[in-house]
């Protein structure tokens, strides 16, 4: 099975369509996306939902969340994690010392341009750590179409695992690790309209691993 | 492991707490509840969410939904099913002829009193069918505390499978089939406050089967 990729513009239009004519709420989409992320192993709001599910799976997540959007949904997602006593940490490099897995949910498919403070040090730490890193939709700092920056922050960041939500983005041609697709909620008609393939999920899984040469680039 | 039961009053208070101090939206709770239901095999809004997930699992669900609440969330859940071209059927007994499983999500834990039209014929059909029936939280027509009615509609309704959301309700002492608990999103502090046990879910499952003698009555 070959999977087509979805441009940043198309991915944004798809999100808008799912929340208008598709009648999904952002709460629903983020819940399903975060559940997919949690099933890969261990992103912004998707990261908070994933941390909550991971707690219930028996893991001991900690959250680094230095830039907090003020909107009500994000505030509720934070409260749901606080109620589980999931710790929020301020020092990312220090937190790396006491974990065995990182979920990189900093930037999503709408990222472009320069990495702003305080994230350069965080991306450098993820680039240099020996523990496994899973990025959601895009390794943070990567261009959605062009992949890793040619130089500077992120140029040496190659996460071990990538989970593409709904459909792979064009940057996957630069990615060499294990690749999953999640977000099992797209109607066939929508996939057809946006011209991407819904992968063949197994059983009740919310994710599916994509093996080499399955992505059309 | 023994599981305590949750009274109808406590279950309603828990729902209110999850949506106030717990910061969950109804969208999130219904998404997670419906996902649990879909994982049992195949309930109002929970039933709509379950039908959507079942479609994505590869099943061919059909929905009998004669009494439609006018609120916006239920309208969106219907639209999400319509977008998958899941058929809505008007004749429940006829629809039974062409399926191999029924999810009974008619009444929830807040039901009490008499079964009103058009549901007596539906409950009689579920009582008499030979195909497997899965009820959500309570077999429809059963009293949450007392179980099946002593006579009349529902007195002979014994579904094959029950999925209790969050915690079993007292009626489980009258239930003889396979019993699952779903709704893996309760914070330990909330479970303690409401004095029920969170069952030991395995792996990433959103449901867990409860074997005989595990429920405290």
From TrEMBL, chains A, B:
The YjeF N-terminal domain covers 1-197
Q: Which residues form a coiled coil?
A: none
PROSITE patterns, per database record: YJEF_N
Which Pfam families does the UniProt record give? YjeF_N
Q: Looking at the UniProt record for this protein, which Gene Ontology cellular component terms does it annotate, in alphabetical order?
A: mitochondrion
| GO function term, MF aspect, one | nucleotide binding
Q: Which domain of life is it from?
A: Eukaryota
| Enzyme Commission number(s) | 5.1.99.6
Which reactions fall under this protein's catalytic activity? (6R)-NADPHX = (6S)-NADPHX; (6R)-NADHX = (6S)-NADHX
Is Cell membrane given among the entry's keywords?
no
Question: Which keywords does this chain's UniProt record carry?
Answer: Isomerase, Metal-binding, NAD, NADP, Nucleotide-binding, Potassium
**Protein's name according to its UniProt entry:** NAD(P)H-hydrate epimerase
- Name the source organism: Sordaria brevicollis
């Amino acid at each position: 099975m070959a999977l087509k990729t979805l441009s940043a513009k198309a991915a944004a239009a798809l999100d808008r369509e799912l929340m208008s004519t598709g009648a999904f709420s952002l709460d629903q989409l983020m819940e399903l996306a975060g559940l997919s992320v949690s099933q890969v192993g261990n992103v912004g709001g998707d990261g908070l939902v994933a941390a909550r599910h991971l707690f219930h799976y028996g893991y001991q997540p900690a959250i680094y969340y230095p830039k907090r959007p003020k909107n009500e949904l994000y505030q509720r997602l934070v409260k749901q994690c606080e109620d589980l006593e999931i710790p929020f940490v301020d020092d990312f490099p220090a937190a790396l010392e006491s974990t065995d897995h990182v979920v990189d949910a900093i930037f999503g498919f709408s990222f472009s341009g320069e990495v702003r403070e305080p994230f350069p040090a965080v991306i450098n730490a993820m680039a240099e750590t020996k523990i496994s890193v899973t990025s959601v939709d895009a390794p943070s700092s990567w261009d959605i179409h062009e992949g890793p920056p040619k130089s500077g922050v992120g140029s040496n960041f190659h996460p071990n695992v990538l989970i593409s939500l709904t459909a792979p983005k064009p940057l996957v041609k630069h990615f060499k690790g294990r690749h999953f697709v999640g977000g099992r909620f797209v109607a066939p008609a929508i996939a057809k309209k946006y011209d991407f393939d819904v992968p063949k999920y197994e059983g009740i899984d919310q994710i599916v691993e994509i093996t080499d040469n399955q992505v059309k680039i």
